[in-house]
Records
---
Amino acid sequence: MENLRTIKNRLKTIGSIIKAVNSMKMIATVKLARVNNTHKQAKACSSMLSDMLGKALRECTLSRLPEQSSWIKGCLLDQANQHGVTRESLIIVLSTNQGFCGSFNQCILHAASELIGKYDGACVEVFGKIGRAAIPQKRPVARESEPPHDMRTAPEYARYLSELVVDYIINYGVGSVFVVSGKFENILVQKGQVSTLWPVECNSEPGEIVKIEGDVGSFLNDLLHMYLYETFVGLVIEHMISEYSARVMTLDASVRNANDMFDRLQLQCNRIRQDRITQELTEIVSSIECML
């Protein structure tokens, strides 16, 4: 049996751990409340821009407008399939910079590994320390700029990712872009999801007429940037919601386990102290009886 001093030291250590984990849980809860309010707006805007871009690209393909830019000709899915061209793919993996998320990172890494195995030879961009430690990046050239350190600055992070995708589409002619990120099911369940950003599907109805006025190339270029930016804003925010939810649940379970261990050690400490008091009283009584 452990002595009283050892148990007291363990109680002190566990008490410090409980305070630290409670602080981390409180921070994750506050972050979750901040990002949860903007998620629905970003998803609605992304869906609208995706539909608009798909219809515009479909109109350019059908009418074969001479003003369309070279990147539009090279990246349209219909043209790639028509000529039997197999274009390279880009896979973007969003992970986290720290643990304490339970199986959240494992779900993302598993989905990313399956996708990378399916598209052999694809370019791979990984963001987050956990993901970079597990998945090697595959880049055509070394990048000069680095992304923002924290995903909490969602607009800046989304702007960097959208410019990255545009660079791959225009300069390297990738035919498909996939993003692996966290998906928020509910407060208890967070999974990894694979989103297809490029090519954009067209949801126009039969007989629907779409007319583009002015410089078609500039219009599609601006629309592509807006679509990618808003889509990444939604994905980054949902990824952060999933990460913070997983962290809150994991830290909550850790606090409960630490409190249970603290209570057991406190009970054990009280028992040892009571046994010592009883032993001392017994020795005193026995000594008095011997003296009489």
Note: The two ends are 36 Å apart (CA to CA).
---
Amino acid sequence: MKTSALSTFALLASFAVSAPLAAAGPGKPTDPPCDGLSTYMATLPVAPLSDVEKEGLLFTREEEKLARDVYTALAAKWGQRAFTAIAAAEQQHMDAVAFLLTRYQLADPAAGKAPGVFANARLQALYVSLVEKGSVSLVEAFVVGATIEDLDLADVEELIADADNLDVDTVMQNLAKGSRNHLRSFVALLTASGATYVPQFLSAEEYAGVISTPAERHVVYDAAGLPVEGIPAGPCDGLGAAAGQGPMGPAAGQGSSNGPGAGSGSGTCDGTGSGSTAGGGTGNGSGNGGGR
């Protein structure tokens, strides 16, 4: 995970580090992961891990904790339910990685760590910087969310390229799905706020490809990133219903009356954000959400 460490360092260098801010509580844990991923994982073989895979799993476990803890802190700061919902999704991602740590008897670097506390020193400093930046304004908080998902997706894709164990690649493919959905949500919220996100870790082409495609729902991916037939995604698929009539994901408000559309997203445990609309209307806007 050399690139991951360098990416984290580069992101950290772009923020001013100051004294730690108060951490909020963690997202709701589940064990095992509550979608169909755990069912599918039970069918996969256990094979020796390479050093790169071991390092990658340990780093990813804490990187997902970083996302969860930052979103929980920003939810407490702004009361914006997109952060609460996506923090819960990040707990699901943490649980999926923890499944592999247990399977391969690797010591969990997040075990016993309070919110905002990390074994990895760079992630520790990055947490402080991200929460500080996201506390400046709600728009900056959305930028922080997009930045985290941009970084997470780049790092997960690196581990997919480096790993050859089917179970490791499978978990990473499903984490990548979650990061894409969450990135879509934050970018939609930024767009609704009149702001633009510029990717820092994904290429412009990959970023555009993610943003231009709809949320990925009702699906568990295999090691190659293909849908697993016969495995339902389950209740933690980010299926929060929008208050409006469109599907989950960014959509323009529908309506002929004056006033903004009033969509809202929600989810039981996975990545759905607060609804927002781009068009005028009186309440038929779609919620912006990113499920796993």
Note: The two ends are 23 Å apart (CA to CA).
---
Amino acid sequence: MSTSARRPAAGTAVTRPATTTAVRAPTLTSRRAAPVQTGRKDTILLAAERLFAQRGYHAVSIRQIAEEAGVPLALVGYYFGQKHELFAAIFQHWSTTIDERLAGLRAAVQAGGDQLLRHIVEAFVNPVLRLRASPEGEFYALLVARELAYASPEADEVLRRHFDPMAHAFVDALQGALPGSTPADAAWGYQFALGALLHHLSDHRVERLSRGSARANDPQARDRLLDFIEGGLRATRTSAPPRRARSPATTTTSTTTITTTRRPR
């Protein structure tokens, strides 16, 4: 083979560096691409939501959330800050559920009529039950049922910021729908309704208590829950006859009886 044949062609010498650059450039560009990073933020949020719902806020660490999400530990702090900020971000993410409940409440109040109370209860309950039945909202509904029932500082902050404005709107509507009720009646009624709803979201004991004839989170139980809450709200008004207090005479008689039957030792 001649020496000239072994020499690279002039064009080849120029092309070789260009080819190297062409290979490296896409690699650098792909590392800078945003889609993977953007998806990681949602992945972290979902991992935190799932772990908080299953184990409780205080039983979960940032490291465990990072491991569940499959991301570096520092990335959790980069996107969300401290753990309580990540906790609050979950509720901000699902704020559309609160918007849906308030929209239903406004529609019920504007429509009025004999079924006003029932429609208020439906606006309060139905969006949450739909969320609980959906694959994407199951863990959030469980998180609400589990964490907001406890008076931790983190849960109280979430309640004040996200849920109290909605609660005040429902309390005002309940008082308007229950003639003769007081603000206290409406507030107690709202709390009792909330307790029934939260318990229904997370309860499985009904299967055991019913000896298998009832299924936990059964969609067919929705009407039972609505009836229960509506009936309870009607019964919490102060216009209901108060219980008779024990009379002083009865107390005196009881005390006297105890005294006379006591024998000196």
Note: The chain is about 75% helix and 0% strand.
